[in-house]
User: Fold these one by one.
Assistant:
Number 1:
Amino acid sequence: MARITGLLGALALSVGLVDALNTLYLPVCQQIEAKLSPSADVIYPLQALSYADATRHWFLSSSESPSCVVEVATPKDVSEVLKIVGATRTPFAVQSGGHASNPGFSSTIGVHISLGKFDQVTLSADQKTVEVGFGLVWKDVYDVLVPLGLSVVGGRVIGPGVGGFTVGGGFSWKTNQYGLTVDTVVKYNVVLPNGTITSASDTQNQDLFFALKGGMNRFGIVTSAVLKTVPQTDVWGGLRIYPSTSVPALLTAIRQFNEQNTDPKAQIITTVDAGQLGTTTMTLFFYDGPSKPAIFDLFDGVVALSSSTGRSSFTDYLLKFPSYIVTNLRGRFASISTSAFTDGYLAAIKNQSDALGLLPKTLNSGTMLSWQIEPFTDYGTHATDSAYPHSDSPLPLNLYFAWASPYDDEYWVGAMKQALAQLKQVAIDEGIYRETYTSYPNYALGDSTAEEVYGANTARLRAIRKKIDPARVMDLAGGQPFLCPFFKKKMLYLPSKTPHSLPHDPFKACVIPRPIGWISTTSPSGQHNLAPFSQFTNLTFDPPYVMLAANQSASTGARKDTVVNIESTRKFVWNLATYDLRHAVNASAQQLPYGTDEFVVAGLKKQFSTLLQGDEENPVPMVEQSPVKFECEYHSTLRLPGNGRLGSVDVVIGRVVGVHIADWAIDRESGKLDVKKTRPIARCGYFDYAVLGETFEMVIPGLDEGLLAGLEGSPGKVERWEKNLGKKERAKL
Ligand SMILES: *[C@@H]1O[C@H](CO)[C@@H](O)[C@H](O)[C@H]1NC(C)=O
Ligand SMILES: *[C@@H]1O[C@H](CO)[C@@H](O)[C@H](O)[C@H]1NC(C)=O
Ligand SMILES: *[C@@H]1O[C@H](CO)[C@@H](O)[C@H](O)[C@H]1NC(C)=O
Ligand SMILES: *[C@@H]1O[C@H](CO)[C@@H](O)[C@H](O)[C@H]1NC(C)=O
Ligand SMILES: *[C@@H]1O[C@H](CO)[C@@H](O)[C@H](O)[C@H]1NC(C)=O
């Protein structure tokens, strides 16, 4: 373990590494390091080799540079990390195999938790179940089980990690026979967002058990799972690569296979690849038995460039095709599911591949564009109660694009979305699209909405999340943003032109806190009025002015009583709204019939203005209990046009001619208004208010006394300073 704070600083400066090394969350890393078990490790950026190793992902676009990698070794370690990142609101990531295709899903600039040390493969005594650590890749599991004649419903290639796969769904070579990986989980061992170490199964934390079956990293950190074992004999299969001339015949064979196959042990995946010389394909054949099944005869007439099909052990079978070809490339998955693969749908896929293949790819650095066709049988009959809905056997099509340059991310993700939209239309036309089909979590684009991934299960998942993670600790780890369906990255909207798409208009929540204009007025006939306005502020200070904004009545378009009173009597009073008076502020905000005296309704005592025009006959009432009051002389109204009646606003400006301050509001030592005593309240967004209590002083450096006096709002001081300066200047001469 490296303890390197001092060294890091010195070295970073001396070799100019400052920009390259991320030290943002170093203190959090050190806090974590102090709590870990002896077998855990913390790796810092300076340990270049092991750091690069520990943060590597399958796609380059999924890698980030964290402040540290924490290699946890026990559930207790995971618990300590979660408590610390939760309390310090530090972004973190959980990496199992690092196969997630979405940036930020298993990477972070904060604390990178590596599950690599959870590498157990522990068979139960009766060999019916096996506990697998979430730091493993599937090959590690098969290497232990296959020699014993056993296997699990796990990954189809050697690369993907056990962890992400087993909380994201899990399409397997055995899916036709047993369902998805999640359907074979007996128990998840999990650390909850608040650090509690527990497990989830059919008999314990059932809601959590449901949520983890497809809910990915939103409900805690799973450290291992107990899976059902299944028998494993030798298998028959391998890879066949087809030239573009064979593609039409191959697609026909795939359609026939999809229609005719009833043997759940027979499966295929076909990858359709775009290329400048035309579309080519690769098909992986798999039979969960030692000899070729009759159904694969469908493919015998299709001319292949090469073939590796034949009998082998399951582990040797997996080595027949590469799964690390995208290292050093950027990329994404994106998917759509249908109930079948029809000729029309397959033709549309080929059509897309042909069209994209002809693009001069070097322009957008696209190096591999492929469509993976996965025709399962009725595997949904094995479905258990899972976050990812799959009981009606959705057949996924996975778009798998890879490219070289980060500048092309937006272009290719856009191209994938466009391709999906086109395919959806074709699927609808072909009658193979269903509203209940969602995007498979492990293939879904990162900005998919909750509904797009979890469909009808979304509400239940939200409720579980609310219960299990009220502090939203898991939001600090990137992942499917299904918690807020409205969330958009890089939000930009044009008010009254484009929708913000949020449940509440965010505008009023942006400029906060706003002082409350608690304004009292009198009508020409002496009727008193008091109302709070959420837009109020001072304007300049010599002499001081204030302004308030009042919208026009939504129903009639008439102006507010306050504005009518101010314009006709040419005066008003501002009262400081305080926490102690909040109920009265609330009561005075009610829409009351004209002529109702809000002072009476709110139980407030009156005191009267004496400095304003006409005060002898008809003075303005002031809130006696309020510690600060301004007597104001009306100056002018600025009428801002709106889009409708609701939008039209009267900005009323008044000159402050009298300032009343209660004795108790002034601190006897400093002579300042004491906000700890007055506790002013302010308007925030939505229905929220803030109360002022804590303040801190910040004197902007380098300003001369004159400017500081201006900032303080003290005309006398500004004048004195200017006079003195004049004297000094003269003295110099
Ligand atoms: C084939 O692709 C072209 C160009 O992308 C598109 O305009 C056309 O509608 C597609 N046809 C089918 C059958 O998908
Ligand atoms: C942690 O969360 C679980 C699930 O909501 C809850 O049952 C448990 O009481 C919490 N533990 C602590 C220490 O807050
Ligand atoms: C405008 O006034 C109506 C009541 O007439 C009120 O409901 C609404 O919130 C006000 N809007 C603004 C922008 O102040
Ligand atoms: C404000 O008034 C409403 C309606 O009378 C009441 O439900 C609410 O509790 C009041 N809030 C405060 C802080 O006085
Ligand atoms: C309100 O008063 C402060 C203090 O004098 C001053 O800095 C600020 O500029 C004033 N606001 C406006 C809008 O004039």
Note: The pocket of 2-acetamido-2-deoxy-beta-D-glucopyranose (ligand 1) is lined by residues 347-348, 351, 355 (CB under 6 Å).
Number 2:
Amino acid sequence: MPHFFRTLAVLLLASAAPMVAADDKDTNFIISPQVREGNPSKLMVFIPGGNVPNEDYNKTVIAVQEEVDDTVNMYVAMLGFSSRKCIKVCPTSGACFLLHNQVKDAVEMAREAGFDGSDEDIVIASHSLGGTCANYLVQGYPEEQMYQNGAIFYGSYVDEQGQFGLENYPAPFAMIGAELDGGLARPGKMANWLFDFNKVSADIGISKAVEKSAVLILPSIDHSNFCPGFQVPGDIFPSEVDEETATKEISQTTAAWLRFSLFKNPSKKDINLLKKMIAFTNDLLAPYFEALNYEVMNPAMHYLGEGGSYSPLCEDAQMILAGFDEDDSSRVRIGRDCDLEGFEDSRSCAYLNITDDFEHSRSQYELIEEEGVLNVNVSGHANYYRDFLNTGSFTCASEVGCKMLSGKRIASELGMEYDAPTSRGTCKDVNAHSIQVALDLLNGSRSLVRYSKYGKKICLGDDFDAILSAGPAWIKESLEIKELDECLSVKSVKIDTELDSRLFPGVHYCKLLSPARVIDWIMTDSLKEAVLRRE
Ligand SMILES: *[C@@H]1O[C@H](CO)[C@@H](O)[C@H](O)[C@H]1NC(C)=O
Ligand SMILES: *[C@@H]1O[C@H](CO)[C@@H](O)[C@H](O)[C@H]1NC(C)=O
Ligand SMILES: *[C@@H]1O[C@H](CO)[C@@H](O)[C@H](O)[C@H]1NC(C)=O
Ligand SMILES: *[C@@H]1O[C@H](CO)[C@@H](O)[C@H](O)[C@H]1NC(C)=O
């Protein structure tokens, strides 16, 4: 059916059946614990994810209640929204009063049901889009005690940086992610906060870091496992484990963190579980961090606009294009400096973080006769995916642009015979190298085992010329990454010129595939059509 008619049909159905629609609307409800005499009362206020019926969290929160029942009587106030989108009643941190009022109502309901703690006994839990709203409540109501005690973000997160980023967040929290999350809280995105978590750990110690801002990715589960019964669009569904196993993993980790960080009476088992999850999270993402370093050194989450001084991928790329043997390669020395002064037209830095500067950079060379060495200056620039209001899924580069010399130019300056008019290698060869780098970094990992078995593979197409073969056109064109039925197709846009070319003679430019982009693909998107588990 054409799209227009489908939309119309849906509208008609909706208006023809108003009673059914009204029944569907979620409202707040309370789930009371099995009350144990002498246990203190706690209350978890839960904010559901977008479009998820709030009852689909019953199993998860009841499992959490049961996990902590030796320590506390944990009431749960499940929020419900008629739109099933908390964001409608809390579009920003400064306009969250409708949601705030609804939380107050829910707390009142919990008191009527028997919750007899104070505002200090309330924690906020949330899933997915619900986490965005929880984050807004914390930010919008700094004086409100119930938002400052502790927060659990399932498949969701705090700000990427700044006052409400991980390092400075006013409330203790645990971000609990899923290894097979195919959406916005995929491991490659969680990497942003794991990076900060490890910084904080190095600073104040791992134990304090977990207490204040834990980042835990749980193995084998997906984003939909937090709301069993509901399939979140775009997820890797179903996950690798059955519902019961997933719920257990989620509830035990949640209980361990609550007892460790908030209730201050962790068991040995809790501590071991938290240690195990932190180790898992770090092991999972270690190859990804190493791969990010190929885009830009020195290491940081560069998509947030931080500095960097050179691109190891561009250095590799230059040598792959030249295609020299080992002896000849040792006669090429690639610089890592930056010459920002004294150019209009000769700006040269090994890495430029602004597209405009990159556009004006020039690959340079200088023969050092006494050493028989050619100093070569390549320049790199990584482009990142859009991340408006923290809604991007990728922290890796969408492409790494490298301006290099043709192999022929280098050979000619060194007085060597060379059998190709531009370069022996191609951008495609470098993309193959990026894939190999990713596979090597993942050697022995569960991500690679899974991908080898089930993942859609990457296929490399031939390089294509920028329109007009001119610098400005090349800058504006992008590495082509396109998912086809049978593979993820990747093709580089290039410029390569011969030594007698009128424009930029003897250069070779490529827009290249980042090894980190490959790892992100391997960990998540490659698996979306796979059947990881048979029911
Ligand atoms: C979820 O829990 C609420 C409160 O106990 C209950 O009314 C509702 O029927 C439950 N729904 C499901 C699907 O378990
Ligand atoms: C480029 O890097 C410098 C630090 O080296 C940083 O101050 C600046 O904000 C960055 N600019 C962009 C656009 O990323
Ligand atoms: C160019 O590269 C050489 C080494 O090959 C290095 O010594 C020099 O500083 C570089 N120049 C710039 C501007 O990066
Ligand atoms: C991968 O790891 C295995 C051992 O686990 C090792 O034998 C092999 O050489 C490794 N391959 C690469 C490319 O590092």
Note: Residues 385 and 398 are 6 Å apart (CA to CA).
